[in-house]
Design goal:
The complex is a heterodimer of chains A (205) and B (421).
Chain A (H helix, E strand, L loop, with lengths): L2 H12 L1 H25 L2 H17 L4 H7 L2 H7 L6 H5 L17 E2 L17 E2 L4 E7 L4 E7 L1 E3 L9 E2 L27 E4 L2 E5 L2
Antiparallel strand pairs in A: 1-6, 2-5, 3-4, 4-8, 5-7
Chain B lengths: L1 H12 L5 H30 L1 H4 L21 E6 L9 E6 L4 E7 L5 E4 L6 E8 L7 E8 L6 E7 L12 E3 L5 E6 L5 E6 L4 E7 L3 E6 L4 E6 L4 E7 L2 E6 L6 H4 L7 E2 L4 E5 L4 E6 L5 E2 L3 E2 H4 L15 E4 L5 E4 L4 E9 L8 E8 L4 E12 L3 E2 L6 E5 L5 E5 L4 E6 L6 E5 L4
Classes of the chains: A alpha+beta (205), B mainly beta (421).
C-alpha cells in the first residue's frame, strides 16, 4: 500500500459525518413525496404507469435515433478504437459483394453473396459445411471486432465469380483452424467447394 | 478456244428442244465445260509452280502416339490447379529449352505431383467422385511413365488432404522408394507408400502437425501447430516420432509451407512471413539454427511481424514463393512491397541470395507479378515464373535474363517440378 492510498482511506473516513446529515434531509423529502402520491393515486394506476415506463423506457436505446447517434462521427471521434489492421483500415460495411467488405478479412475464394447466396447463406443446390476456419474482423461501423466463421458451401464446383483473398490472421495449414486454403466441406458429402460465407459467431473485442 | 465455240454452238441449237429437255442438256453441258476448264487450269498451274513439280504424291497415314525421350534437366512438370473449375486440374510437361508443351495428364481436384528423383516416373495424388460432383470418393496415386505419359499403376489411397495444393502434402524419399502422402481423413496422418509394390506400407499419425519434408531414404519432418517440428524415422513397419521445441510463433510470424528442402541432405530453409530464414538440417534429431533476415541481407532493416502490421516494406509472398538451386546454394525468393498479412501476394521481384553467406546476389524485376518461382537443378539452371494470364516465363537463372515464354500455358500455374527435386 502506498502513501497516497493511505491518505485516500483517511479522507473517506473524515467525510462520513456530512453525508449522514444530507441523507436525513433526503429521507424526509422521499417520505413526503411518497405520502402525497399514495393519497392521490390508486395502487393499480401506479403499477400501470410504472410498468409502462419500464417497458417503453427499455426500448429507447433500440430506437433508430439512438442507433444513428451511436454511429455518428462525433461518437466515433470520441472513443471508437482505430482499425487494428491494414485490411480493417480499408474495409466498408455496405457492399457484401466487394472484397473489402469488413467480414472478409480472412476469406479466400468465391463470395457466396455473389454466387446466389448471401453473407451467411449458401446458394441453392449447395450444402453448408458444419466446419469452418475462423477469422477476427474489425467492423468499422461499431468499432468492435468479431469472430467470423468462414463456412464453405459445397457440392457444386467453384462458382467462379471474381475471387477474393483476405489474409489477415491467415496461418499455414499446420494451423488448420486459421487456414483458408483447406477445403472446409467436411460433413457435406462430396467435398467439392462452391463458395464461402462469413458468419458472425461472437464478439472478439 | 475451240471447245468454247462448240459449247456456244450447242447452246444456240438447244432452242429446238422442249423446256425441260433444254434445261437438262444445258446443265450437263455446263458441267462438262467447267470440269474441262478446271482440269486445264490445274495442269497449267502444276507446270507453272516448280516447287510442287517434284513433290511425291501423299501417301496413306497411320495414327500414332508420340513417345518422349527420357527426362532431362530442362523438361519440367508444371501443375495447373485451374481454380475456377478445380475438378479439371492438370500437369503439363514442358520443354523449357524450346518453350514448348510436350503433353499433359489430368490431376483432378487439388492434386499434388511429385517426380522420382531419377526421373523414372512421376506420381499424381488426386481425388475423384464416381458421379462427377457426387457419389463414391476415390483418392488415387497414379504412377506415370514419363516417356509415354500413360499410367503404369493406378493405386487407390486410403485418403488424402483436400486443400488448395501445398507442395509438401506429397513428397518422395531420396531413393524414390517411399512416397509420403499427407492426409486429414479423418485425422492428421501420413501414408507411406512403397513406389515398387504400390502398397501403403504404414500409416503414421502426426497429431497436430501437417505436411511432409523428406530427408534421407526413410524419414520425413512435419510442421506442428505449436511452432515446432516432428521428425519421423521409418524402420520396416514402425515409425518413431521426435518433437522439437517450438522455434517460431505461428500467430505472429508463421513459416511458409513452401520453404525449400535440399532433398539429398534434408537441409531446409524455413522462411517466415516477415522474412526470417531458419536454416535446419532435417533428420531424426533436427537442429534449427539462428534465423537470418532477407531484408538485412539486402541492406535494409529487419521487417516487423504481426506486432506492427502497418509497416510497409519488402516482404516474401506468393504460393511457390521460393526455390533452391542445390549445387550453388542459391535461394530464389519472390518479394513484394507490402504490409504484414500480405504473405500470398504475388512477387514483383525475385531476390537471389546465397544461403551460406546470407548475401543478396541479385534482384530480378519481373515484368508481371508472379506467385510462383521455380528453378532447375543442373549446371546451367533455368528459372521459371508465371503471371495472372497463366504465362510460363523462362529465365536464365545464372544471368537473371528473360529468355522466352509460353504466353498462356494454363489458368493457375502453381508449381514446377524439375528433375532431381
Amino acid at each position: 500500500m502506498s502513501q497516497s492510498d493511505r491518505f485516500d482511506l483517511m479522507g473517506q473516513r473524515a467525510a462520513v459525518r456530512p453525508v449522514r446529515a444530507v441523507s436525513g434531509l433526503l429521507d424526509h423529502m422521499v417520505e413526503y413525496l411518497t405520502r402525497q402520491m399514495a393519497s392521490h393515486s390508486s395502487r393499480r394506476s401506479f403499477a400501470g404507469r410504472a410498468g409502462a415506463w419500464l417497458t417503453f423506457g427499455s426500448l429507447i436505446p433500440t430506437l433508430p435515433v439512438s442507433r444513428a447517434f451511436a454511429a455518428s462521427p462525433a461518437i466515433q471521434a470520441r472513443g471508437k478504437p482505430k482499425p487494428p489492421t491494414p485490411f480493417a483500415s480499408q474495409a466498408q460495411t455496405t457492399d457484401p459483394t466487394a472484397c473489402n467488405y469488413w467480414r472478409y478479412c480472412a476469406i479466400d475464394g468465391y463470395l457466396c453473396a455473389s454466387c446466389g447466396g448471401g453473407v451467411h447463406s449458401c446458394p441453392p443446390g449447395t450444402s453448408p459445411s458444419p466446419t469452418s476456419w475462423i477469422g477476427t474482423c474489425f467492423n468499422p461501423a461499431d468499432g468492435h471486432s468479431y469472430l467470423v466463421a468462414y463456412r464453405d458451401c459445397c457440392g457444386q464446383d467453384a462458382c467462379s465469380q471474381p475471387p477474393c483473398l483476405g489474409m489477415e490472421g491467415d496461418q499455414p495449414s499446420y494451423r488448420p483452424q486459421a487456414n483458408n486454403d483447406i477445403i472446409w466441406c467436411f460433413g457435406t458429402g462430396a467435398l467439392i467447394y462452391n463458395c464461402s460465407t462469413s458468419v458472425i459467431v461472437g464478439n472478439a473485442t | 478456244m475451240k471447245r468454247l465455240f462448240s459449247y456456244q454452238n450447242m447452246l444456240d441449237h438447244s432452242s429446238v428442244l422442249s423446256g425441260k429437255e433444254r434445261s437438262i442438256v444445258s446443265l450437263s453441258q455446263r458441267f462438262y465445260f467447267v470440269t474441262v476448264m478446271l482440269a486445264t487450269a490445274f495442269m497449267v498451274g502444276s507446270v507453272a509452280d516448280p516447287a510442287l513439280a517434284g513433290e511425291p504424291v501423299l501417301q496413306e497415314e497411320e495414327s500414332d502416339v508420340i513417345r518422349l525421350p527420357p527426362v532431362t534437366s530442362h523438361r519440367i512438370l508444371v501443375q495447373d490447379v485451374v481454380g475456377e473449375h478445380a475438378k479439371d486440374g492438370r500437369v503439363y510437361v514442358v520443354d523449357a529449352d524450346a518453350g514448348k508443351l510436350l503433353g499433359m495428364v489430368q490431376a483432378a481436384y487439388n492434386a499434388n505431383v511429385v517426380q522420382d528423383p531419377g526421373g523414372k516416373a512421376f506420381y499424381v495424388a488426386e481425388t475423384v467422385w464416381s458421379r462427377g460432383n457426387r457419389g463414391d470418393r476415390a483418392d488415387l496415386l497414379p504412377a506415370y511413365d514419363p516417356q509415354t505419359l500413360t499410367i503404369t499403376n493406378d493405386e487407390v489411397l486410403p485418403g488424402r488432404a483436400l486443400i488448395t495444393p501445398k507442395k509438401n502434402d506429397l513428397s518422395i524419399s531420396n531413393d524414390g522408394k517411399n512416397i509420403y502422402v499427407f492426409s486429414m481423413v479423418p485425422t492428421s496422418a501420413v501414408y507411406v507408400v512403397e513406389s515398387i509394390s504400390h502398397k501403403v506400407a504404414q500409416t503414421v499419425d502426426v497429431p497436430g502437425c501437417s505436411l511432409t519434408y523428406p530427408w534421407g531414404n526413410s524419414g520425413f519432418t512435419s510442421i506442428c501447430a505449436d511452432g515446432g517440428l516432428v521428425n519421423v524415422s521409418l524402420s520396416g513397419n514402425h515409425a518413431t516420432a521426435e518433437h522439437t521445441t517450438p522455434f517460431f510463433d505461428p500467430e505472429k510470424d508463421a513459416v511458409f509451407e513452401h520453404s525449400p528442402t535440399r532433398r539429398p541432405d534434408g537441409r531446409t530453409w524455413f522462411i517466415s512471413y516477415s522474412g526470417l530464414v531458419y536454416p535446419a538440417s532435417l533428420s531424426a534429431n533436427t537442429k534449427i539454427e539462428a534465423a537470418w533476415s532477407l531484408q538485412e541481407a539486402a541492406g535494409m532493416k529487419r521487417a516487423p511481424a504481426a506486432e506492427a502490421p502497418f509497416v510497409k516494406t519488402w516482404r516474401p509472398g506468393g504460393w511457390q514463393l521460393s526455390a533452391l538451386h542445390y549445387a550453388s546454394g542459391h535461394l530464389f525468393v519472390l518479394m513484394h512491397m507490402g504490409t504484414f498479412w500480405t504473405h500470398k501476394q504475388a512477387g514483383t521481384e525475385v531476390w537471389e541470395l546465397e544461403v551460406d553467406t546470407h548475401r543478396l546476389l541479385r534482384r530480378i524485376r519481373l515484368p508481371h507479378p508472379s506467385t510462383m518461382v521455380g528453378v532447375t537443378q543442373d549446371a546451367r539452371p533455368l528459372m521459371f515464373t508465371t503471371d495472372k494470364a497463366g504465362a510460363f516465363c523462362i529465365w536464365d537463372a545464372t544471368t537473371g535474363k528473360f529468355l522466352r515464354q509460353i504466353p498462356h500455358l494454363g489458368e493457375d500455374l502453381y508449381f514446377t517440378v524439375a528433375l532431381g527435386e
